[in-house]
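Example: Peptidase S9.
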Amino acid sequence: MTYDAAAPTSGRDPRGMSKAGPDPRSVAVTGLATLAWYAVPDVVGPRWGRAVAKAAVLSTAVGLVLAATDEGREAREGVRATRDELRRIADDASEAPAAARGADENTLGRDVEPDGPAGAVRPAVVGGAVLGAVAAVGTLAVVGERWAYRLGERWRGRGVRCPHTRVGLILGTVAAGLTCLEPGLRGGGGARSVGIPARR
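Written out as structure tokens, the predicted fold is:
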């Protein structure tokens, strides 16, 4: 008997293997949230009202992703793992003073090598790199937001009905398509052979 492990699946199988394709719930949430985000100017006029509406769209989308998608489940598991690791570090730190006193008594009168490798990356360097990346992403987001709004306003000036909604439809379709491609981009897409030998 031959076991065919190459057939694509979605979600997670009973053995806990990762899904072969994108989560359709994540694709739907991404596309609809992008559409709603960019369609706001067609529905809400005042700038403060648009800000409130977009905040509601964003919070709803994040809540749906965390509650109903595979990515949300993985994020919750990551948060729990980080919390457990921080607790472990805190427990180790509480036990460190006694161990340090014993080490001081054993190494008294001897030269002690500094902890950590000589070329260790300083936290300030890592923090600066992270802040720079966040700033770059934020700048691109602002530029893209302004471009989309100006495009909608140009279409409105030409007499197009619901111009910002049309922009949202285009960008929502693009966002949904990128979400479909995301598992393949990170190496998780496509079917993989498990390597189960065939029995005859």
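The radius of gyration is 26 Å.
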